[in-house]
Amino acid sequence: MAAGVGPGVLVLQLLWGLALLLCLVLSRVVGRARFAVALVTLGAAILSAALLLFPREDERPATAAADEIVDTFFIGRFVLLAVMSLVLLGCLFLLLIYHLMEPVYAKPLHSS
Fold it and tell me: If we measure between CA atoms, which residue out of 8, 20, 6 comes closest to residue 48?
């Protein structure tokens, strides 16, 4: 256990970190290999789903603890998640407008 998280979280972080790095490398490639970014993302998503759906350990702990842990910051975390999701959607919208749909102006023809 490192940094208070289990090995599964570390494996998922490593998987998505490598997928992001591979996507960045493939985005610079010229030609058809550039479209492999979608396959890398899909592969990482499928592997993540498999890792999440088939855990190696039992869901219930082996020993029952006498103390009950209460999550007091539960609502705050979901509010933070909602705000971050809205910011992400806003950034994707701005990326769509200013980068992906950037107008290409015609150059004037010089007639003689």
Answer: 8
